[in-house]
Amino acid sequence: MNKIRLSATQLESFLLQLFNAFGIEGRQAQSITRNMVWSELIGRSNFGVNRIAIHLKRLQHQVLNGTSKPNITQTANATALLDGDNGFGYYVGEVAMVKAIEMAKQNGIGIVGANNSNFYGTGAYFVNQAAHQGMIALSLSNSFPKVVAHGGLKAVLGTNPFAFGAPRANGEHLLVDFATSSLAGSTVRQHLEDGTSLPEGLAIAPDGSATTDPARIGESALLPFGGAKGYGLSLMVEILSGVVTGAGFSQQVKSTYADFNDKSDSGHCMIAINIAKFMPLDDFYVRFEALIALLKASNPRDEVLLPGEIRWKNYHHNSKSGIPFSPATISDLEAISKQYGITVPWNSSG
């Protein structure tokens, strides 16, 4: 099926109009738009416009606050807590990382814990923000439980994504971003929509038997990736994002897709580390590129890629050629635009 390509500017214009029509406050709308457009540019379409419908549904059920006013409490020179006022996680996460960067510029490190928040999109977006400021960064978020503890049978942890970033002089920053579960929740939903089975060995039924049926994940559970190792990382995310921030944790976090009676109450943790407090940034770039050269030279026959390298290739290609969308997605966007009286900034298919 041929793809339809929209420029980043066209998509940004559309999203801002749409979010304004939804009644989302301006700063939140801009933050959501930046995150979604960047996700589409880097090829993370599962974190882009296909999330619009569920956000609209949560706004309509009044379990998501489109006019939130996050409140930051500075707790020490390098630490702060942020109450997200049940706003969009894209906005809450961005406010938290901006504050972490601000503290890191002064104190060498900044750590912000956020509570009373929601799904925050692509974790790599936030660490990329920090990398642009010459910072090493981590971005963590807990989520509704879909994952068992290592050795357990009941879902008690979320997919709990973990992102890490480090700056490069060429702007193509190192971006590590992954779920601590065997599969991301969005991947499970994609299998369900496509009617395909999950790969074997990634999920278990309540009795501990293996399952490959994505429709059974609600009653079953995903395994942590790498067994005890993924379990340990997931616990780190849960503690730093949920327990210490005052946010919900484990079953206290509500499902974005299935619970329309309660707010999600997920939490995030943003950490920014100022390289300039250790060494001149240019010296870091030289040392980091020397490490990268060693990695690249480690296989003379095949290319060794850095985490995030494919994302940057997508970013440059899609920035130049346009972001690809299926005709079905474009049709869905146009249907929403008609519902809200918006003129799409591209040639409509009618």
How are the secondary structure elements laid out?
Elements: E1 4-6, H1 8-21, H2 26-41, H3 52-60, E2 71-76, E3 79-83, H4 89-107, E4 109-117, H5 123-132, E5 135-141, E6 147-148, E7 155-157, E8 162-166, E9 174-178, H6 185-194, E10 203-204, E11 221-222, H7 228-243, E12 266-274, H8 281-296, H9 309-321, E13 323-325, H10 327-339
Parallel strand pairs: 3-4
Antiparallel strand pairs: 1-13, 2-3, 4-12, 5-8, 5-12, 6-7, 8-9, 10-11
What report would you give on this structure?
By secondary structure, this protein is of the alpha+beta class. It folds into two domains: 1-60 and 311-350, Malate/L-lactate/L-sulpholactate dehydrogenase, four-helix barrel (Hypothetical Oxidoreductase Yiak, Chain: A, domain 1); 68-181 and 223-307, Malate/L-lactate/L-sulpholactate dehydrogenase, NADPH binding domain (Ribosomal Protein S8, Chain: A, domain 1), CATH 3.30.1370. It has ten helices and 13 strands. It has helices spanning 8-21, 26-41, 52-60, 89-107, 123-132, 185-194, 228-243, 281-296, 309-321, 327-339; strands spanning 4-6, 71-76, 79-83, 109-117, 135-141, 147-148, 155-157, 162-166, 174-178, 203-204, 221-222, 266-274, 323-325. The strands form four sheets. A seven-stranded mixed beta sheet has the order 2-3-4-12-5-8-9, sandwiched between helices. Strands 1-13 form a two-stranded antiparallel sheet. The longest helix has 19 residues, at 89-107. It is globular and about 55 Å long. The two termini are 19 Å apart. The model has no long low-confidence stretch (mean pLDDT 94).
